[in-house]
């Protein structure tokens, strides 16, 4: 079999960000107010600091203002909740991103729920999960939303297909499965307690790997012609799929980096501008 076609997340994300920048400029022209994303960072974990900086840079390039809120590592759940509630009430802020994971002493769920649903551009609240699952207007979790955009861009017909999602986290595995279900795929979730993972993955027409274990999904587990989405991002730019062997069996595959990653940020920017448009009545 010939090698899989690569799903170019970098190129698609660039197009989405260009469109988003045009919309941001239009909002700024019409209202005199630029869309604004507040980023909230607790502590100084180097990876989180880098992610926040990257998101702010991308915002700036797209004509979106960003407000950086940096809190000390010892911030309590109550203090974080108060900060997020205050940003939720602030009319100058249109979207809120709480960089996670937050410290273990913080109740992350309580913090997420302090974000007003209309500003939840990272799609982390119960309200966003519910609207997404019911197919109602609202914000999706950014990585799952980006994955669906990528599948659409490559004309992957999901109806009736067997989709296997490896991973069930609240921000990635679970929501991506709900989005695939909404497109009439037959969805199976796998997780750390799944027995015979390989044999489940082998039945998939579409595989989404969202685990955080380098090269867990191997080429020999991929059904010939399957579509393989690798959301994993591990040290050394390695995904959760063994790319070299999977590319020999899949029909379409996302590279790491350059596949799912850029789509996550593009979705965040797009949802921030949509949030601003709604709040400013444009
Ligand atoms: P997470 O919260 O740690 O969840 C990992 C999931 O994988 C859990 O559901 C866990 O099962 C499951 N799992 C762990 N070991 C397994 C195994 N051996 N077999 C089957 N399932 C197993 O991770 P996450 O936040 O969802 O992130 C997953 C990956 O995506 C990471 O590499 C992360 O860096 C990447 N990521 C990328 C982006 C992006 O923008 N590209 C965004 C977010 C995350 P249990 O539920 O049973 O524990």
From TrEMBL:
It catalyses: (6R)-5,10-methylene-5,6,7,8-tetrahydrofolate + NADP(+) = (6R)-5,10-methenyltetrahydrofolate + NADPH; (6R)-5,10-methenyltetrahydrofolate + H2O = (6R)-10-formyltetrahydrofolate + H(+). InterPro entries: Aminoacid_DH-like_N_sf, NAD(P)-bd_dom_sf, THF_DH/CycHdrlase, THF_DH/CycHdrlase_cat_dom, THF_DH/CycHdrlase_CS, THF_DH/CycHdrlase_NAD-bd_dom. Residues 7-122 form the Tetrahydrofolate dehydrogenase/cyclohydrolase catalytic domain. Its EC number is 1.5.1.5, 3.5.4.9. NADP(+) binds at residues 167-169. Pfam families: THF_DHG_CYH, THF_DHG_CYH_C. Residues 141-279 form the Tetrahydrofolate dehydrogenase/cyclohydrolase NAD(P)-binding domain. Pathway: One-carbon metabolism; tetrahydrofolate interconversion. Keywords: Amino-acid biosynthesis, Histidine biosynthesis, Hydrolase, Methionine biosynthesis, Multifunctional enzyme, NADP, One-carbon metabolism, Oxidoreductase, Purine biosynthesis. Catalyzes the oxidation of 5,10-methylenetetrahydrofolate to 5,10-methenyltetrahydrofolate and then the hydrolysis of 5,10-methenyltetrahydrofolate to 10-formyltetrahydrofolate. Homodimer. Belongs to the tetrahydrofolate dehydrogenase/cyclohydrolase family. This is Bifunctional protein FolD. It comes from Streptomyces carpinensis. The lineage of its organism: Bacteria, Bacillati, Actinomycetota, Actinomycetes, Kitasatosporales. The gene is folD.
